[in-house]
């Protein structure tokens, strides 16, 4: 292992520490974006001389297509074209009322917001390139980086709860006061990190046990990982995110079945019971009397509930199909859907569903790109679990990405630099990326195992 292998783990830790907000923390996010630039430049330079294997290129190509798609939304269009796009009539009518000649305008209704979204992607792009192109990681270092920051975030969350709703342990001014949010602004995003840490803890335990030289060392590893697992569960219980609690059961069960000892061979009924428990846990959270503001009865602040947000976002999405309103335009478009009586100084910054927001901003093409990614993800999951020599960090990455994608149905964790960097790292691990090795010291036929 070299210093190079600590690059992505260190940058990932920085993203988790500084990138926990989407509507706040501008200075911290700017630092992460600036730090991403040298990683991206070095990786792109390396691509010229040493392109990655075909298998590793899929996430790079997908990210490239997404960037091109966003850039095209900034391309100025003649009035004859942009006025014909769905949802643009009010813009054209407003300019005519002002007696202003119709200018060339891009597809995006908020070019500045689209450009800001492009910059927001820099940490995720740097993480992906660092893993796939530079190989600047070790699976164990990535896991330790993720777990150490998660445990620290739980400790910060405990201080936040101890300090009360106005305690000084909260990092962001715009946050969920009275909730253990840790290094995040939103408690649900903290729950996402806690869930993602569980499969990586399982993968790390197997890696450490493989290198244990004595039964005493193996016992120490099991005690350490069991302690961390208990801390993660305590973090979920104190965080009290409904989505986090509901998803914790399937994540724990899938992680256990994926990282169990080789001498434990579960029968078919164990998988059936795990599936039933997972469905029951999610159904209990969704349908139970826990103050759910999506399908439950929302008596207080209904204007800011998920049910209202989903309804208004869907209404707006229909108006802008099939091309969408442009990446980064949610806030401006959503305000046109809100009833005047519900407009206050508090506003909806995101749809609380990354999938619905994607539909609104990118239309059918964005949903099509997401579907292509899901097909690649499913193919890689099958390949990872049927491989002769299991890559446990790739399995952890698959569980983590699946968890984030499911949580994104009812929230927006991918809108933070922290979770988007974790997602990009996992995509790289799923693509069979390997740590950097010097060409002189490695045989061309050698398959380097992530440790």
Tell me the layout of helices and strands.
Blueprint: H1 7-18, H2 26-49, H3 54-72, H4 79-82, H5 89-97, H6 111-120, H7 122-132, H8 139-162, H9 187-211, H10 215-239, H11 242-258, H12 268-287, H13 306-320, H14 330-335, H15 354-386, H16 392-407, H17 417-430
Helix pairs in contact: 1-2, 1-7, 1-8, 1-17, 2-7, 3-7, 7-17, 8-9, 8-10, 9-10, 9-11, 9-16, 11-12, 11-16, 13-15, 16-17
Quick recap:
The protein has 451 residues and is mostly helical. The protein is 63% helix and 0% strand. The protein has a domain of 288 residues.
For the biggest sheet, the summary is: none
**Topology, number of strands:** 0
Kindly provide the radius of gyration, computed on alpha-carbon positions and rounded to a whole number of angstroms. Answer: 23 Å
What's the SSE pattern? Answer: HHHHHHHHHHHHHHHHH
Strand-pairing-aware structural class: mainly alpha
**Helical stretch count?**
17
User: What are the low-pLDDT stretches, counting only 5+ consecutive residues below 50?
Assistant: 440-451
Distance between the termini: 10 Å
Q: What gross morphology would you assign?
A: globular
Question: What percentage of residues falls in helices of 4 or more residues?
Answer: 55-70%
What percentage of amino acids are in beta strands? under 5%
What does the average pLDDT come to?
86
């Amino acid at each position: 292992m070299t210093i190079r292998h600590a690059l992505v783990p260190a940058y990932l830790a920085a993203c988790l520490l500084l990138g926990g907000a989407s509507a706040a923390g501008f200075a911290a996010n700017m630092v992460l974006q600036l730090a991403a630039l040298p990683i991206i430049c070095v990786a792109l330079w390396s691509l010229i001389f040493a392109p990655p294997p075909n298998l590793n290129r899929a996430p790079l190509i997908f990210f490239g297509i997404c960037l091109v798609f966003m850039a095209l939304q900034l391309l100025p269009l003649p009035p004859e074209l942009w006025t014909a796009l769905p949802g643009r009539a009010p813009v054209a009518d407003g300019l005519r009322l002002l007696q202003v000649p119709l200018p060339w305008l891009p597809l995006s209704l908020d070019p500045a917001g689209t450009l800001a979204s492009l910059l927001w992607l820099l940490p995720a792009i740097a993480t992906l390139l660092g893993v796939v192109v530079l190989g600047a990681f070790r699976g164990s270092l990535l896991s330790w980086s993720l777990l150490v920051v998660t445990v620290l975030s739980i400790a910060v969350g405990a201080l936040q709860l101890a300090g009360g709703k106005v305690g000084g342990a909260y990092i962001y001014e715009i946050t969920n006061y009275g909730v253990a949010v840790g290094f995040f602004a939103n408690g649900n995003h903290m729950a996402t990190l806690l869930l993602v840490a569980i499969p990586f803890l399982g993968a790390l335990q197997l890696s450490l046990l493989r290198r244990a030289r004595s039964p005493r060392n193996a016992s120490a590893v099991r005690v350490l990982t069991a302690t961390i697992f208990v801390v993660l569960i305590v973090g979920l219980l104190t965080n009290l995110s409904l989505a986090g609690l509901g998803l914790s059961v399937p994540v724990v069960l899938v992680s256990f079945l994926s990282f169990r000892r080789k001498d434990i061979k579960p029968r078919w009924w164990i998988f059936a019971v795990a599936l039933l428990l997972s469905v029951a846990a999610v159904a209990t959270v969704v349908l139970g009397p826990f103050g759910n503001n999506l399908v439950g009865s929302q008596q207080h602040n209904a204007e800011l509930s998920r049910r209202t947000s989903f309804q208004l976002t869907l209404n707006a999405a229909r108006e802008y199909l099939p091309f969408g309103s442009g990446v980064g335009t949610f806030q401006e478009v959503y305000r046109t859907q809100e009833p005047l009586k519900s407009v206050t100084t508090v506003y909806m910054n995101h749809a609380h569903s990354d999938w619905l927001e994607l539909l609104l901003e990118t239309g059918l093409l964005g949903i099509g790109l997401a579907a292509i990614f899901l097909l690649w993800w499913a193919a890689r999951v099958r390949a990872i679990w049927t491989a002769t020599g299991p890559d446990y960090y790739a399995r952890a990455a698959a569980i983590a990405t699946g968890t984030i994608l499911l949580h994104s149905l009812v929230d927006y964790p991918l809108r933070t630099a922290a979770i988007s960097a974790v997602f990009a790292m996992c995509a790289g691990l799923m693509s069979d990326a390997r740590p950097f090795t010097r060409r002189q010291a490695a045989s061309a036929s050698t398959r380097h195992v992530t440790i």
